[in-house]
Fold each of these.
Amino acid sequence: MNFFALLGRAFLKFIYDSGGIFLFFFKTLFYTFSPPYRIKLFIKQMEFIGVKSWLVVSLTALFSGMVTAYQVNHALAKFGGQSVLGGVVALTLTRELGPVLTAIMVVARAGSAITAEIGSMRITEQIDALKIMAVNPIQYLMVPRLWASVIVVPLLTGMADIIGIAGGYGVAVFLLNIDPGILLARMEDMVELIDILSGILKSIFFGAFLVTVCGYKGYNASGGAEGVGRATTEAVVISSVGILISDYILTTIFF
Amino acid sequence: MIEIKGLRKSFNGLEVLKGVNLTIPADKITFIMGQSGTGKSVLIKHIVGLIKPDSGEIWFEGKDLTKLSERELQKVRRKIGFLFQEGALFDSMTVGENVAFPLIEHFKLSKKEIAEKVRELLSAVELLEFKDKYPSELSGGMKKRAALARTLALQPQVVLFDEPTTGLDPILQITILDLIKGLKERYHLTCVIISHDVTLAFKFADYIAFLHQGIILKEGTPEEIKESSDPFVQKFIKSALI
C-alpha cells in the first residue's frame, strides 16, 4: 500500500473517531437527564477514578514540584533571580503541570481500566445483555463515569497543585537554602486567582475528555481479547495526546 | 406470534439473509436449524433489535419492530428475552446479583421481595446453592442456566435461545432442554431455539425451520420435516443420524 493510501486511511479513521467521540459524549450528556439516576454507581466511580488515583497523582505532583524547583533555580541563578523561584514553581504547577500531569495519570490508571472493562463487556456480549434487559448501556455505563470524572479530576488537580508546591518549597528551602519568607511572598505576589482557576477549568475539560475517549474506545471494541488490548492502547494514546494538544489550545484561550 | 417478512441483511457486501419469511407460532418451541455460519444468530438478533435489517419487517403485537426507536424497542425487550450463547452474565456480579439486576431495574420491589424472587428463579434452574458464586466460578452449563434465570426475571412472553446446548455434553444438553420445556409449560413461554442438532430438535421441537443460503428452505412440524423431499433437509437429517 502506498504512502498516500496509508495517510488517507489514517485521516479517515481520525475523522470517524472524532465524530464518534463527539456523538458518544452528547449521548452521555443527553442520558444524564433521563431516569433512573444511578447515585450508587456514581459514588462507586468517584471512588474508582478519584480515591484510588490519589497516591499515584500525589507522587507525580510531589516529584514534579521538586524537580521544577531544582531546574528553575538552576536557570534563575544565572542572572541572580532566585527570589522569584516560589512564584515560578507555583505558576508552573497551577497553570500547567498540576492539571496536565493529573489528567495523564488518571488516564493511565483509571482510563485504561475503563476501556478494558467496557471493552471486555462488549466482546462477551454483556453490553448487548444490558440492551436486552431494556437498560440503556450508555446511560448505565457512561453517565456515572462521566460525572464522577468531571468532579474528581479537578479535586485531584487541586490536591496535586498543593502537593507539588509543597515539594518545590521543600527543595527550595531545605536543599537550595532559599529564604522561606521571600519564597512565599513571591508566590503570593505572582500567583493570581485566574492562574488557579484556569488550571481547574482545564481539569474539568480533561476529566470529561479522558473518560469519553476511554469509554468510547471500550464501547466500540471488537476482535476478542486482542481487540480489547488494541482499544486500550488507542484510548491511552488518544487521551494523552489529546490532553496535551487541548492544553495548548485552552492556554491560548485563557491567557 | 412473531412474523418475519422478507428480511435481508448484508455484512461488508456479503448477503447473509436473502429475504427470510417465517412465522413463529405462539406457546410452542420452534427450532431454527441450519449449518454453522448460515446466519441463524443474525436472524434472531434482528428480532430483539440488536441488529438492524437492510430491508424487511418483523411483526410482534401489531408493531413492526424494525421501525421502532430505541426507546420503543426497550418496551418490547421486556417481553422478548434473549439467552446469549455464552450467557453474557455480568462478571462483576454474583449469580444472585445477576438475576436481581433486571428486577431492580424494572420493578418497584422491596429487598425482601427481590431476594424471594431471586430464590424462586434460581430454584427453577436448580442453581440456588450457587447464588453467591461469581460467573467465573461456574461451568458452561451452569452459566447458561443462570443466564436463563436472569432472562426469566423480566417475565417475558418469548425467549430466544442462541445455541443453548452448544459446547455441552449430551446429558447436559438433554438437561438444559428438559429445563427449557419445563419452564415453557410453567411460564407459558414461546421459545425459539437456535441449534444444529437434529436429534434434539426432533425430540423437543413443536415446529422446525431450516435456514439455508439466506432463506427459510423448509418449515413445519418435526413429522413434516422428516418427510420432506428436499435434498438438503434430507442430507442434513441423515448426516446427523449417522
Amino acid sequence: MFGSYKRWRSSRKKRLKPETILKIRFTLFRMLILVLFLVLAGQLWKMQIVEGKNYKQRADYNRLRTVTVPSPRGIVYDRNKTMLVRNIPSFTVSIVPADLPNSDQPAVIGRLSKLLNTPPEEIAKAIEDRRREIRLFTPLPIKTNVDQRTAFAIEEQHPVLPGVTLQIEPIRQYIDGPLTAHLLGYVGRISEDELAKREGEGYDLNDRLGKAGVEGSFETELRGRPGRENAEFDVSGRKVETLESEAPMPGNNLVLTIDLNLQRKMAEYLAEEMGSSTSAAAVALNPKTGEVLGMVSLPTYDNNLFSGGISNQNLAQLLNDPKHPLINHAVGGQYPSGSIFKVITGSGGLQEGVIKPSTTIFCTGSLSIGGWTYPCWAPHGVVDIVKALAVSCDVFFFSVGGGGNQGVVGLGIDRLAKYAREFGLGAKTGIAIPGEVPGLVPDPQWKMDLRKEPWRGGDTYNLSIGQGDLNVTPLQMANVVATVANGGMLYRPQIVREVLDANGNVVRPFEKQVIREVAVSKENLAWIRKGMETATGPWGTANTVIVPGIKVAAKTGTAESGRKDPSGRVIYHGWFLAYAPAEDPQIALAVFHSDGQGALTAAPAATKILRYFFGKEETPKPPAPRS
Amino acid sequence: MRPQIWRNFDFILLLTTLLLIAFGLAMSYSTSLTTVPAGTPYLSHPTVRQGLYAATGLVFMALAVYMDYRVFRHLAPFLYVFTMIFLVVVIAIGTATHGSRRWVDLGPFPIQPSELAKLVLTIALAAFIAARQDKVKKLSTLVGSFAIVAVPVVLVYLQPDLGTIIIFACIWLGMALMSGMRITFFAGLGAAAVASIPFVYEKILHGYMRQRLATFLDPASDPLGAGYNVQQSEISVGSGGLLGKGFAQGTQSQLHFLMVQSTDFVFSVVGEELGFVGALVLFFLFIVLLFRCLRAATRSQDTFGRLLAVGVTVQLLFQVFVNVGVNTRLLPVTGIPLPFISQGGSSLMTILLSLGIVQSIVLRHKRLEF
C-alpha cells in the first residue's frame, strides 16, 4: 500500500504518457455523462416527487373550470295567458383574456373591431380592465345581440381570432314593447354594486338581472336557479368533457293581473286626448281585489332596446328626454290632485260630523274670510254633499275643510290630513313595481320643518280642494276611488296575479291584500258614491261620460300645476276618477294628463276606456295585430 | 468485407438505438392524438412520417456500417465546403418559422441543414486534428480547429439559431479536450469567454435570445407571452409525479396548454405522461447509448475514428442535457431537439447516420482478427 503510493508519487514526477492522459480524460468524460444525468434526475425528483402535488394543482387549475349554466328566465303572461315576454336566442361576442396571447392582441382587436364596428380602443380598454381584475377565464362580452351574419363571420375566422368566443344566450323579447314597458321593465347586466349586494345568491359577473318593472321586483321568481358544471377545458377554452353538473332550475312564470287588450285601449285613448301634455297616466283597478287591470304611463319607451344591452347613445337619448319616458308616471309621478280630492274631504266631513248629508251651503261664487277671498269656479247656489260632488263646488268643500262659513265648523288641517292618509295618500301603496313614490300630504309640522313657516288657514282651504302642496300619484287616486267604490276597503294594488312553475302549476295563488279598512262608515261612503253618480248626470261635471247601459260614477279634477307654458298660458293637470257599474263596480279608473282639464281631456279618454271595457264601443275596432 | 469483423458488431448499440426510435414514435403518436385532424391522409400523419424518416435513417446507418469510416477522412474538406454552402443557401432562400430561417423546402422533405452540419463539423474537426496529431499540443492546432467551427457558427448565427450554436461549441470543446490539447489553453480561453459576456449580451445576442434569458430568470414576468410555455412545461413535468398521468393521458399536452410539444418540448410530455420512472427509463437508454459510443472511441484504431466517435457522443450528450434542462427549468429556452424523441426528419436521419459511422468504427478497431 505504501509502495503503491510511492509509485504514484514517482510517476507524477515523470511526464504522463499520452495514452494515460487520454485514459484519464475518457474516464472523466464518462463521469461527466453520469453527473449530467444525475443533475437532470435530481431536478426531476425535485419537481415531480417533492413538488409534484403543487404542480398537479396548477395543471388542474389550467384545465378545470366551474361554469354556471344559466336557467331559462320565467315567461310573463297577462291575465288571459297571453304571452308578454319570451326568451329568444342572441349571439354575444366575448373574449376570454386568458386565451388571447399578448402578441396577437393588437391583431385580434383590429379584426374584431372591423367585424363588430366597435372602436378598437374600447375593446382594448375592456380587456385591460379585466386583466387587472385577474378574472382571466371569465368571458368578457364585447358586443351583445350581434346579427347572424356577423356571428357566422366570426365563427369562420375562429383560427385568426384566438380567445374570441361566440356565445348563444337567451335574451328577452318584449312582444308588445312600449305598451307594457313600464309594467315589465327590463333586464340588464349586473353592475358591480348589485353584484356586491347580492353576494351569496350565485350571481356572476356576466349575469343579467331584472332592473325595472316586474323583471326587477320578481327577479328571484323569474330567475330560477342557475346550474353548475365542473368541466374540463382545452387551452382555447373549448369544453372537452363535463365532469359533474347540476341542472339549472328554470324560473317561475308570472301571470299578471293586467288585461293586455284593455292596456292597449287605455294607451290608445289616453294618447288621443294627450294634447300638449308632457306626461299622462291611466290606472284601472278591480275595486274588489286591488288587481291592476291596466296601467299606462306616457310617454313610454321600447324595453327591447335594453334586451341585448342598450347602446350608450340610446340610453343617453332616453335619459336626456325632457319627458322622462323611463319614469312610470302612474306610480313614480306626483302631482296636485285638484278636485278629485273632494271625495276625501267629503268623506272626512261626513264621518267627523262636520256636515250631515242634509247640510246645505249657499255658494255665491266665492268665499271671503279673514280678508282673503277664495273663488269657486262658478256660483252654485244651494248645494249639499251630493250636489257639491256632482258640480264640484269649491265653496262647499272650503267650508267642510276649513270651516268658518255659514255655521260649518271645518275639519281643520289635522283631521283633513288624517283622512287623506287614511285613504292611502302620502304613502307608497306597496305595488310590486320599482320606482313608486309616496307623494305628500302637507301638514303644519311638514311646513315648519321644510319651509320654516307656520301653517295658515289658506293652506287648509287649498288642501280641501286638492290644491297647494298636496302631491298624489295616479295609482294612489285610482286606489282612492276603488276604496270608495267597494265600500271602504283599501287594498294593496297588485300587478302579479299568480306565480306558476315551469310546468304551469300554481306556486302562489292570488290573495287580496288589505292595507286597511278606512275609518269611514259605509253609509257615509254611500253618500259620496251618490255624489259621484250624480256627477255623470245631466247637471254634473262629468255629464259627457256616457256608457250605454252602464251607470258610471265619476269625479273630475283640474289642478293648478303652478307652471306656465312658454307662451304664458297657465298649465292645469286634468284628472278623472270613475268606477262602474255604479251598483256593482267592476272597474275603478284614474286618468291623468299633465296638461289638460278633467272634463275636457281626462273624461273623454276615460269614457272611451270604459266603453271598451264594457263592450260598448260605437265602432268596435279590432285589436291591432301583435308583432 | 471480411465476415469475421461482424463479431465486433455492437448489438447493444443497435438495440438501444431501436428502443429509442420506438420511444420517439410512441411520443409522436401521443402528441398527435389531439393535434392531427381526423381524415388526415395516412402518409401525412406525423407518426407515420417519423417512422419513414427512421426507416430511411436506418438505411443510411446500414450504408455507413458497411462503408469504412476512413472514407470520410478524405471526403472531409468537400463535405465541409458543401455544407457551408448549404447553410448560406438557407439564409438566402430558407423558409422562415418563428422569425428564423432554418429550413430548406425540398418537396415533401423539408431539410434542416444545421442538423447535417453537426455531423459534418464533427467529421471535419476529426480529420483536421488527426492530420495534425503530432502537433496537437501546439496553439496553431487549437486556432485552426477554432476556425473550422467559427464558420458554421457565424452562418447559423445569421439564421439565427442559438441552440445549434451551443451544440457546435460543445462538439468543438469536447473533441478538442479529448484530442489531447493542452488544458492550459482552455483555461485561458475560458477566462476570455467570461470577460466577453457583457459584449456578447449587448452586441451579439438577438432580441429573442435576450428575452429568453429574461424569461428564464423570471417566467412569471410575462405569463401569457414569452414565459407562457416555460411555465406550462414546468407544470407538465411537475404534475407527472412518480408514474405519470398515463400514456396519452397528459392534460397539459392533450389539451394543448403545452405548446411545441412534439418537438422542443416533447420531454415535458414524457415527464407528464410517463412520470419520473418513465424519464429515468429514457435516461438509462441515453446513458447506454453514450457509453457504447465512448466504447467505440476508446477502441478506435486511429485518432480520426476516436475523435469522430467522441464528437458524436458530445453532440448527443449535450442535445439531451440542454433539451431536458430547458424542459425542467434548469436552462433558458433554446431550440434544441431531443435526439430520437423530438419529431423531425433531419435530426433523426443525421443521428442514425452518425451512429452507423460509430458502428463502423467499432467494426474496424485495431485488434487483429484471425
